[in-house]
Specification:
Elements: H1 3-13, H2 17-37, H3 41-50, H4 55-58, H5 67-75, H6 80-88, H7 100-120, H8 132-140, H9 150-154, H10 163-175, H11 178-181
Length: 183
């Protein structure tokens, strides 16, 4: 499946604009981390783009989220490692994160929410208005962007990344798609 086909599939299953933007953000950061680690950017991007494909159907049943998505992606013929990364990004299942791609998707998912929230509290409401120091400060404020699970973001250490570096790579990737993000 190429990126265009994946995006069409995503839009068929996800109708919420903010969820589509979230998927684009996760795709961009996954591609940036793939480049950082010398991995397959296209494959990692597909995992990021499609990771929440089942969310509209499963939002009221978190125990089903990512299982239905993984099933759908397997039926569509996506590679097994992409399907598994999508399945394990939901911590509710308690499945082991085996590969670098699994670990990246797991930590990137909440990171994008933290970055968006940080941009939105700036008067400019732009990704260009924030930097790593600002993100790190907001990361330390537990009452800020409560949905962005700090423990999961900090699991970037499983990939051998320091928090500052992870925040920087994520911010850089999202700034690169600021127009698509509307930020």
């Amino acid at each position: 499946m190429n990126r265009e086909e994946a995006y069409s599939l995503l839009k068929k299953h996800l109708k919420t604009k903010n969820l589509i933007k979230h998927s684009l953000a996760v795709e961009a950061v996954m591609q940036r981390l793939a480049r950082h680690f010398g991995e397959d950017e296209e494959k990692w991007g597909l995992a990021g783009l499609l990771h929440d494909i089942d969310y509209d159907r499963t939002k009221d049943d978190p125990g089903r989220h990512s299982l239905e998505g993984a099933e759908l992606l397997a039926e569509q013929g996506l590679p097994g490692d992409v399907v598994y990364a999508v399945k394990v990004h939901n911590e509710a299942h308690g499945l082991p994160r085996k590969t670098l791609m699994d670990k990246a998707l797991y930590s990137i998912d909440p990171l994008t929410g933290l970055i968006v929230a940080a941009a939105l509290i700036k008067p400019e409401k732009k990704l260009s208005a924030i930097d790593v120091d600002f993100l790190k400060k907001k990361f330390g404020e537990k009452s800020f962007a409560r949905g962005a699970n700090r423990e999961i973001i900090a699991a970037c250490s499983e990939m051998g990344l320091e928090l500052d570096e992870f925040l920087g790579l994520g911010l850089e990737a999202m700034q690169g798609i600021n127009k698509e993000m509307g930020l």
